[in-house]
């Protein structure tokens, strides 16, 4: 495609009129419904990968209903992949995989298949905890097909050969709503402090409900014009959830009494004005170029004009909430990696690495996994299958240290047990 401007609006949060800038060298796909372009690799479950040109595509935002979670690729398929080593059809752009890096395999999201068998461009999961002496992988460096495996669903033998690198599970990462609810854990940046602290007096005055001197403030005008008592203001424009959480943290810690009266200011004109100030600061260059900008007038008049425009952005440029596509992708990969069910078979019985060696730092990946991934397994009580194979390596341990006993199933992973029949 000739490089030209197009509307880009991907669910990962990349958006703008200069599409190619946001494509970041990845494949893009056009939605028939909303006419915007998205990354192929950001669509759920890799569903946009390899679509025939004639198939109309509807982006994840336009596909209103929840897409059903696809079932795991079955052992048979993985087996086919092993025999046809070079037709690994299971790897699809947008899917998760495990990539070998050093001794261990770490989760990645597949971004782009490179031509001429050069391998894959991938994004390593941001929650990977590499050993201290191992630098993080170069994001530009391709991962070869040989160093990649999928979830190996149902493939016990292959799983036993793979040692996992330590990483934070997808379900341990806070989702956006948690970020706002736990804003006290999101310390504000020095930059945010520099933007807000010059306006401490005006923010404290509005917080204290001194509206008379502040009738030029857009959020004050908004609540005064509203007929509703205690009108809250839901607007945050283009700000990310992280930025919003940091603003709340600043407000809470810097405005006297705010900490003890959360319900008094969240969504209040003072809080909304803090957001206006930040939006004005982030867009200052653009706003100053506005042909109506009062550049000859007082500083106060300039600031008021900027806040007025920033308020428009705050109200009308509703941000399309970005999806944490990396977390979503890892969540599905992990569900397939760790599912314990009759479908997953023996491979689902905590088999990773048992013929290879300990996971990084003797990590136990099965602790605290969602209970929903584990259903009753017939014959589960047979502990023999947790034993290490003859090639299990204890390297890295001191010689005096006794070889580790075969790991028992992680204690805090709830397992349904067969119901005992009451004795007659
Ligand atoms: Zn994207
Ligand atoms: Zn669309």
TrEMBL record:
InterPro entries reported for this sequence: Znf_FYVE_PHD (IPR011011), Znf_RING/FYVE/PHD (IPR013083)
Highest taxon, organism lineage: Eukaryota
Biased composition (Basic and acidic residues): 384-402
Residues covered by region (Disordered): 384-424
Protein name as annotated: Zinc finger PHD-type domain-containing protein
Organism of derivation: Mycena metata
């Amino acid at each position: 495609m000739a490089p030209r401007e197009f509307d880009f609006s991907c669910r990962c949060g990349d958006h703008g009129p200069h599409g190619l800038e946001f494509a970041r060298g990845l494949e893009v796909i056009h939605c028939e419904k909303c006419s915007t372009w998205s990354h192929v690799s950001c669509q759920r479950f890799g569903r946009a990968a390899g679509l025939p040109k004639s198939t109309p595509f509807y982006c994840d935002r336009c596909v209103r209903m929840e897409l059903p979670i696809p079932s795991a690729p079955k052992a048979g398929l993985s087996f086919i992949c092993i025999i046809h080593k070079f037709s690994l059809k299971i790897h699809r752009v947008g899917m998760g995989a495990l990539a070998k890096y050093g001794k261990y395999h770490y989760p990645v999201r597949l971004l782009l298949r490179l031509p001429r068998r050069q391998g894959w461009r991938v994004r390593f999961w941001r929650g990977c905890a590499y050993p201290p002496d191992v630098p993080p992988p170069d994001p530009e460096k391709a991962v070869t097909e040989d160093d990649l495996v999928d979830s190996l669903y149902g493939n016990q033998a292959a799983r036993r050969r793979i040692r996992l690198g330590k990483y934070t599970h997808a379900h341990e990462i806070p989702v956006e709503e948690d970020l706002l609810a736990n804003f006290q854990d999101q310390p504000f940046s020095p930059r945010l402090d520099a933007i807000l602290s010059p306006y401490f007096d005006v923010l404290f005055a509005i917080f204290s409900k001194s509206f008379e001197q502040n009738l030029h403030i857009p959020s004050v005008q908004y609540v005064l014009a509203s007929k509703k008592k205690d009108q809250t203001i839901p607007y945050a424009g283009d700000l990310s959830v992280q930025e919003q959480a940091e603003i709340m943290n600043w407000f809470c810690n810097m405005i006297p009494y705010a900490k003890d009266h959360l319900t008094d200011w969240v969504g209040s004109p003072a809080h909304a004005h803090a957001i206006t100030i930040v939006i004005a600061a982030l867009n200052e260059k653009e706003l100053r170029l506005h042909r109506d900008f009062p550049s000859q007038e007082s500083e106060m008049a300039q600031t008021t004009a900027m806040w007025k425009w920033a308020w428009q952005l705050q109200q009308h440029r509703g941000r399309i909430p970005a999806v944490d596509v990396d977390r979503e992708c890892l969540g599905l990969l992990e569900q397939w990696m760790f599912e314990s069910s009759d479908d997953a078979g023996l491979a689902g019985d905590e088999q990773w690495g048992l013929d290879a060696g300990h996971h990084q730092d003797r990590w136990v990946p099965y602790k605290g996994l969602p209970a929903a991934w584990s259903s009753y397994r017939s014959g589960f009580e047979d502990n023999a299958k947790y034993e290490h194979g003859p090639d299990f390596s204890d390297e890295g341990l001191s010689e005096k240290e006794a070889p580790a006993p075969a790991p028992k199933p992680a204690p805090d992973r709830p397992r349904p047990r067969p119901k005992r029949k009451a004795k007659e």
